[in-house]
Design goal:
Elements lengths: L13 H15 L3 H11 L22 H6 L4 H5 L3 H12 L9 H9 L19 H7 L13 H10 L6 H5 L4
Helix pairs in contact: 1-5
Length: 176
């Protein structure tokens, strides 16, 4: 069975990468397509372990510097790994949330804002240190109605709209 965006993974490491994504998904009890779609989105379609955004997040799922340290590494080390090696840290990141991931949107929320997993669609993404307006400004794709707030519902809408139509059924079903 081929995975979504499998053909976007560089051919030089595609086979071992896809095998490891399937292995990780099995360990997490989730659909491997969810991971592939998230890594495609977060790495700007490159599946590059070294891609870095403007605020210093790095790699396949855009590890923040503090997240990398919490996982026992650094963003510099992550940037210097192969994509297949970095998948070990993708697994390490998701494992504590294993029981909370029931669908694709939950899986993405673990990546983007774990506190929002399981919240209703009107839940506003914010913390006492990160106001909703800053999160909306830094993530304009998710602020659909341009109200300077990002909700779980807006994230779900955007993430599902980004998927090719023929793959939607893989993303709307719950974990089995």
């Amino acid at each position: 069975m081929s995975l979504i965006y499998e053909n976007k993974v560089p051919s030089s490491y595609r086979i071992p990468f896809i095998a490891k994504v399937k292995e990780i998904a099995t360990k997490l009890g989730i659909n491997p397509n969810w991971l592939m779609a998230i890594m495609h989105w977060e790495s700007a379609g490159t599946f590059s372990p070294s891609i870095t955004n403007s605020i210093g997040a790095t790699g396949l799922i855009q590890f923040m510097p503090s997240t990398a340290i919490g996982l026992g590494t650094t963003t510099t080390a992550l940037r210097n790994m192969t994509a297949v090696q970095q998948l070990d840290y993708v697994l390490k990141y998701y494992l504590p949330y294993k029981s909370k991931i029931t669908n694709y949107v939950d899986c993405y929320l673990v990546t983007f804002f774990p506190a929002a997993v399981g919240k209703d669609e009107n839940y506003i993404i914010q913390t006492s240190k990160l106001p909703a307006s800053l999160i909306a400004t830094q993530n304009p794709a998710f602020d659909i109605n341009k109200d300077k707030k990002v909700t779980v519902g807006e994230i779900a809408t955007v993430m599902l709209r980004k998927l090719p139509t023929e793959w939607i059924k893989e993303f709307v079903k719950k974990k089995q």
